Amino acid sequence: MRWAEDWKVFEQELTKFTANHGKIIFLCIGNDMRGDDSAGPLIAEKLEELLKKNHDIIVIDTGTVPENYTGVVRQENPSHIIFVDAVEMNSKPGNIRLVNSDEIANYSISTHAMPLSFMIKYLGSFSNAKIILIGIQPKSLEMSDNISLEVLNGIENLVNILKNIFS
Domain residues of the chain, as ranges? Predict the structure, then answer.
């Protein structure tokens, strides 16, 4: 598929996933000192500004410890939880994919303390929220404060899609 078709399919899938949503929490994960792993925090920054008027959406930059925010998730009782993170998917850098919660253990997400699959099981013990991961294919996770152009382009495309869906 060409990029435009991929992005269109992505937008349709995310729109379907969030249909009839109540409160949505975006948990944006990453380490801004590891190159493209800073995608999550950068997306959080962009979304906070873009969606600040939408009171049904909470955006949290969790850094490398999303498990520290389970109390917020419990308190807010969202209908949907959307993780955003750099994920090794054997794809082109900057590609973005929706990963269902039952698939997350199949992907390499290695820059945080607790595997997301464990966190999802824990969240499921007290929440009925629908959970999904937006995975962004990194080019490099080496120690660096530079993010690749490919991932920056992917982030811009993702932010535009989220703006279309939630603004």
Answer: 23-166
Q: How confident is the model at residue 3 (pLDDT cuts 50, 70, 90)?
A: very low
Whether the pLDDT of residue 64 is over 50: the answer is yes
Among 138, 128, 162, smallest CA distance to 51 is for 162
Chain-centre distance for alpha carbon 38: 12
Instruction: Specify the pLDDT at position 2.
Output: 36
pTM for this structure? 0.90
In CATH, what class is 23-166? Answer: alpha beta
Quick one: average pLDDT of 30-36?
88
HEC per residue, the chain? CCHHHHHHHHHHHHHHHCCCCCCEEEEEECCCCEHHHHHHHHHHHHHHHHCCCCCCEEEEEEECCHHHHHHHHHHHCCCEEEEEEECECCCCCCCEEEEEHHHHHHCECCCCCCCHHHHHHHHHCCCCCEEEEEEECCCCCCCECCCCHHHHHHHHHHHHHHHHHHC
Cβ–Cβ under 8 Å, residues 145 and 31: no
Q: In whole angstroms, give the CA distance from residue 24 to residue 72.
A: 12
